[in-house]
């Protein structure tokens, strides 16, 4: 095999695409501009660096679409999910990851592969020939972004992705807080105590909302619009939608009992989750924000237990660009106007680490098959991977296309005898069907 696959971007999607293609015998070059060219959000030059949350979300493969996606990626020998498993942290029923060792392991694994090399230079133009996958993610460089916009004949769509703050664990007042996963979820005692909880009374909550609404926020540049993705809304934007919104979102008090005052029901609860294996860093769950740094420190120290908190990282906000994929990409994720180029990951309009890696997995397999001169069918829409690729390459309404997490609404309806009332049984009908279809697709390659 003399033809080489070039992958632009070494994030979740690019790393997974490289792994899948290289394991199929294809020579791969990953073009990663970091650390020479930095971005707003990245801190290192590692491949697959986690810049936002450290959670891969639910790991329940029987009743959750994200957990099903985990299962499918494991069945396909996915690098990202297997590395996440190696560096998993207690997180109840979710899969949370020790972010630095995770990225270091992905980087070392790819660099050790005999079919993979990395070129640390920025790609600024769309290539005219060769086999390429563009997986530059939400922080595509301005030069490449302009080249993509010129080629597609339309402005790239954009929304804003916000980053949650990280707190040093030893600066938290544990006389007020307690450890418990909501509804005591988890198979082990460690997982059942995977979250640190900060309780609020009604008065404390109201004062917090007032401060949040009054805090100084990051200004947008002229011509930018704040089209946030609903799964990653800044907390102040949620508060603007109604004073009780946060109590029914990341600050909901349900499923928790205050270990210090068992009979005292909190009005609201802020949760923190371990961000590294040592447990020295905790991120504030769901607290992505666009407040300015000074305001963040003041507002977050109003949270009971965080009065003296020290922050390893404050929240931030960055532009996240993506294609109108239903109009621009074919069923094999190729750019219709330049079929030698595939797009993968968040730039295609999927949202989340797992979804991005899954699209990288598929793009890498598509490219490897094409280079090898074989055909690879699109995964069935009954599968999690298949539902996503069908959505972004034609299933979504182009006029209203927005980034999407995997969810059962993207799947063809399943025949569940329990009907609509028993969600667990109904969702298991989806996952059972998907596992059979996914394994058949893998076996048919």
From TrEMBL:
Compartment(s):
Cytoplasm
- Quote the InterPro entries the UniProt record gives: FAD/NAD-bd_sf (IPR036188), MnmG-rel (IPR002218), MnmG_N (IPR040131), TrmFO (IPR004417)
Q: Where is the MnmG N-terminal domain?
A: 5-373
Which Pfam families is this protein grouped with?
A: GIDA
**Record bears the keyword NADP:** yes
Cofactor(s) needed, names only, are:
FAD
The catalysed reaction is: uridine(54) in tRNA + (6R)-5,10-methylene-5,6,7,8-tetrahydrofolate + NADH + H(+) = 5-methyluridine(54) in tRNA + (6S)-5,6,7,8-tetrahydrofolate + NAD(+); uridine(54) in tRNA + (6R)-5,10-methylene-5,6,7,8-tetrahydrofolate + NADPH + H(+) = 5-methyluridine(54) in tRNA + (6S)-5,6,7,8-tetrahydrofolate + NADP(+)
Question: What are its E.C. numbers?
Answer: 2.1.1.74
Q: What are the UniProt keywords, alphabetically?
A: Cytoplasm, FAD, Flavoprotein, Methyltransferase, NAD, NADP, Transferase, tRNA processing
Q: What is its main location?
A: cytoplasm
Keyword Cytoplasm (UniProt): yes
Residues engaged in binding FAD: 9-14
The record ties this protein, via PANTHER family, to: GLUCOSE INHIBITED DIVISION PROTEIN A (PTHR11806), METHYLENETETRAHYDROFOLATE--TRNA-(URACIL-5-)-METHYLTRANSFERASE TRMFO (PTHR11806:SF2)
Q: Which family does it belong to?
A: Belongs to the MnmG family. TrmFO subfamily.
* Main function: Catalyzes the folate-dependent formation of 5-methyl-uridine at position 54 (M-5-U54) in all tRNAs.
Against NCBIfam families, the record matches this protein to: gid_trmFO, PRK05335.1
* Record's protein name: Methylenetetrahydrofolate--tRNA-(uracil-5-)-methyltransferase TrmFO
């Amino acid at each position: 095999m003399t033809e080489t696959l070039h992958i632009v971007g070494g994030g979740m999607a690019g790393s997974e695409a490289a792994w899948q293609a290289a394991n199929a015998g294809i020579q791969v070059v990953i073009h990663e501009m970091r650390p020479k060219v930095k971005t707003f959000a990245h801190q290192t030059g590692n491949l697959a660096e986690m810049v936002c949350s450290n959670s891969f979300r639910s790991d329940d493969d029987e009743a959750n679409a994200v957990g099903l996606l985990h299962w499918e990626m494991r069945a396909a020998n996915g690098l990202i999910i297997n590395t996440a498993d190696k560096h998993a942290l207690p997180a109840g029923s979710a899969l949370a990851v020790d972010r630095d060792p995770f990225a270091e392991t992905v980087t070392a694994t790819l660099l050790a592969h005999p079919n993979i090399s990395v070129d640390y230079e920025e790609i600024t133009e769309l290539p005219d020939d060769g086999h390429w996958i563009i997986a530059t993610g939400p922080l595509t460089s301005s030069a490449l972004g302009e080249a993509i916009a010129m080629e597609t004949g339309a402005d790239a769509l954009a929304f804003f992705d916000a980053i949650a703050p990280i707190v040093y664990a030893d600066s938290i007042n544990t006389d007020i807080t307690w450890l418990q996963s909501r509804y005591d979820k988890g198979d082990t005692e460690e997982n059942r105590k995977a979250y640190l909880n900060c309780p609020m009374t009604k008065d404390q909550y109201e004062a917090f909302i007032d401060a949040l609404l009054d805090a100084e926020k990051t200004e947008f540049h002229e011509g930018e619009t704040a089209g946030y993705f609903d799964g990653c809304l800044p907390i102040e934007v949620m508060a603007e939608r109604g004073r009780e919104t946060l109590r029914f979102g990341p600050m909901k008090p349900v499923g928790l009992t205050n270990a210090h005052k068992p009979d005292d029901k909190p009005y609201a609860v802020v949760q923190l989750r371990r961000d590294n294996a040592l447990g020295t860093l905790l991120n504030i769950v769901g607290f992505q924000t666009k407040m300015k740094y000074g305001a963040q420190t003041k507002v977050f120290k109003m949270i009971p237990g965080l009065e003296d908190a020290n922050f390893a990282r404050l929240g931030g906000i960055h532009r996240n660009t993506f294609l109108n994929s239903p109009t621009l990409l074919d069923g094999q994720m190729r750019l219709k106007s330049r079929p030698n180029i595939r797009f993968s990951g968040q730039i295609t309009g999927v949202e989340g680490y797992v979804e991005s890696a899954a699209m990288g997995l598929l793009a890498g397999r598509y490219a490897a098959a094409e280079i090898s001169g074989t055909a690879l069918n699109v995964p069935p829409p009954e599968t999690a991977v298949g539902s996503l690729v069908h959505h972004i390459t034609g299933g979504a309404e182009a006029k209203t296309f927005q980034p999407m997490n995997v969810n059962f609404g993207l799947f063809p309806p399943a025949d569940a005898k329990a009907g609509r009332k028993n969600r667990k049984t109904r969702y298991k009908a989806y996952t059972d069907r998907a596992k059979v279809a996914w394994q058949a697709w893998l076996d048919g390659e």
